[in-house]
Design goal:
Elements: H1 4-8, H2 13-21, H3 26-45, H4 51-68, H5 76-85, H6 92-113, H7 117-193, H8 198-224, H9 231-244, E1 248-253, H10 260-280, E2 285-293, E3 296-303, H11 314-325, E4 329-334, E5 337-343
Parallel strand pairs: 1-2
Antiparallel strand pairs: 2-3, 3-5, 4-5
Helix pairs in contact: 3-4, 4-5, 5-6, 5-7, 6-7, 7-8, 7-10, 9-10, 10-11
């Protein structure tokens, strides 16, 4: 609420000055004291309530002005307060309509009771000016508040989207790389058991070390937003992963002019799909194709297995979110398993 409501009480000086030059006693003095107490209650309450209760406060302050006008023409200040309180109403239209109603009521009251021009001219003039200023300021404050809420909402959505992006990227990076590391570690262990030459074993362990370092770098890149994967790089990684799993990978890439963002998203889709094949598919071959179509490009990832118990997991959901982000669509065929991604881009 701030200091403004307290400072606005300074306008009561008009009432007290006139009361000083035309003092009252007895019942009139008691009426003035009661009116001031009721006014202060309604005045401060108006800043904390809305709806019907706010209307009651405005009407009460207006009624105090009507009652005190019989004692002191400085009571016109209460009409100004009632007009200013209209700005607290819910919408700009309601506030403006209420202000007009208050001003018309002042004019009607002055005409019926035949108030002097020293009463009704200041009452109507200042009620109109101050009321209009407060209604306008209240509308500006409402718009600023709405704008701030909108900006906070957008910022929250951006943070949520960033968290989801990092989550998808970390899932893709770690899921793929850890699968390859596991396969290569198992292969090195079997080679030790079979007594394979140390040079061969060192080669596999070296590959695990290099992949671990590369994975760490990719995780850092994903977190800071610089993880720009490429299809060629992912296919090289896929060759390593499928070879370790004794799967033949066949690739056919016709498109080489994709934007960095589109290529990065498609590359990460390739990574996740190959990871799923290595982990779950009972297949000896896998195909990755990227061809142009009339409406854009189509990425297809296929194997010889089948999805008998199909349901979208985090990996499939991540791929669908990536392709949706590009304005494309994802299609799933279960026997044999084939994932197709259509992206409406020009190449």
């Amino acid at each position: 609420m701030g200091y403004a409501p307290y400072l606005s009480l300074a306008y009561l000086t008009i009432f007290f000055v006139n009361l000083y030059f035309a003092p009252v006693t007895g019942l009139k003095l008691a009426a003035v004291i009661i009116a001031l107490i009721v006014f202060l209650i309604c005045y401060f309450r108006a800043f904390w309530v809305d709806g019907v209760q706010l209307v009651i406060c405005i009407v009460s302050i207006f009624a105090i002005g009507v009652a005190m006008a019989q004692i002191n023409f400085g009571a016109s200040v209460f009409f100004v307060y009632a007009a200013a309180m209209c700005s607290q109403l819910k919408t700009h239209r309601i506030a403006l309509g209420s202000l007009i109603f208050v001003i018309c009521s002042i004019g009607l009251f002055a005409a019926i009771t035949q108030q002097s021009t020293f009463f009704w001219i200041p009452a109507i003039l200042f009620s109109f000016i101050i009321g209009l200023m407060t209604v306008h300021q209240a509308e500006v404050d409402r718009k600023n508040k709405a704008l701030k809420l909108s900006e906070e909402h957008i910022e929250a959505l951006a943070k949520t989207a960033e968290r989801e992006r990092i989550g998808r990227d970390l899932h893709d990076v770690l899921g793929h790389s850890l699968s390859v590391i596991t396969l290569k570690s198992e292969l090195a262990s079997k080679m030790i058991d079979k007594g394979v030459a140390l040079d061969k074993i060192r080669e596999e362990i070296k590959a695990v070390e290099e992949l671990s370092r590369e994975t760490l770098a990719q995780v850092r890149g994903a977190v800071v937003g610089y993880n720009q994967a490429t299809i060629d790089t992912e296919l090289l990684h896929a060759q390593v992963a499928t070879k370790a799993a004794d799967i033949e990978l066949i690739s056919d890439i016709e498109v080489n002019t994709l934007t960095a963002d589109v290529e990065s998203q498609l590359a990460l889709i390739v990574r996740e799909a190959i990871t799923n094949i290595v982990r779950h598919a009972e297949t000896k071959k896998a195909w990755v194709t990227l061809h142009t179509r009339n409406t854009g490009v189509e990425l297809s990832i296929k194997d010889q297995g089948s999805m008998t118990d199909y349901k979208e997991n985090s990996g499939l959901n991540g791929m669908r979110q990536r392709i949706t982000k590009l304005g494309g669509e994802m299609y799933i065929e279960t026997a044999p398993t084939c994932l197709r991604f259509n992206v409406p881009v020009s190449v």
